[in-house]
Design a protein that fits this description.
227 residues; metal-binding; Fumarylacetoacetase-like_C; alpha+beta; 5-stranded mixed beta sheet; Fumarylacetoacetate hydrolase, domain 2
């Protein structure tokens, strides 16, 4: 097959303890999935989960130096558990959902909050607030069979050594299995899909030069410096 230009390389994420890499198909994100974060964003706790997407090439595997994005004066961090799927399907049941999980990771959903808010005010799409270049740093994947239990695991983020976000995965409004099942009612999931599962309270603004350290206990750690 001949292309009019050389296709871009496949976006992939390293797997802990393996030379193999996880090829990424799509990146889905859950909006507002921790009660305290729902409250700080002024939303309704009774709302079902909703979803948005980032392009695969917005990922920054293993973090490191991340460019501060243009067109914003209010860049905010959201630390999240990320789920990597090795099986797909539509209308997946909650009971079967975790069988589709290959691995977990730590991710940051960077948000140009000022652009997002302006889009919300005008009922416009969120893409320019969420789906920009380098907006999704991610750690190496931890295979699911090595993760004993996630329910009480701590999820946390600090900026320049000062704690900003900390909670447990038990505080998620919708569990990993429920998120997968609900998303599969809207799209057919497939191997290579990543799902960012929401963030705890404490999101705040970051600036150039800030270093962010985040972790999910039992899954991994991630460090990012804005440059």
């Amino acid at each position: 097959m001949t292309y009019v230009f050389t296709p871009p390389p496949v976006v992939s994420v390293p797997v802990q303890g393996s030379d193999a890499r996880f090829p990424v198909r799509r990146v889905y994100c859950v909006g507002r999935n921790y009660a305290e974060h729902v409250a700080e964003m002024g939303a309704d706790l009774r709302d079902p989960p909703f979803f948005f997407a980032k392009p695969a090439d917005a990922l920054v595997p293993l973090g490191g130096n991340v460019p501060y994005p243009p067109a914003t004066t209010n860049l905010q961090h959201e630390v999240e558990l990320v789920v990597a799927l090795s099986r797909g399907g539509a209308n997946i049941t909650v009971a079967d959902a975790l069988e589709h999980v290959f691995a977990y990771a730590v991710g940051i959903d960077f948000t140009r909050r000022d652009l997002q808010q302006r889009a919300k005010d005008k009922s416009h799409p969120w893409e320019m607030g969420k789906a920009f270049d380098s907006s999704a740093p991610i750690s190496a994947l931890q295979p699911a069979e090595r993760v004993a239990s996630l329910r009480e695991a701590t999820i946390a983020l600090s900026v320049n050594g000062q704690a900003r976000q900390q909670g447990t995965l038990a505080q998620m409004t919708w569990s990993v299995a429920e998120v997968i099942a609900h998303l599969s009612q809207f799209v057919t999931l497939a191997p290579g899909d990543l799902i960012f599962t929401g963030t705890p309270a404490g999101v705040s603004t970051v600036v150039r030069g800030d270093t962010l350290d985040c972790r999910v206990d039992g899954v991994g750690e991630l460090r990012v410096t804005l440059v």
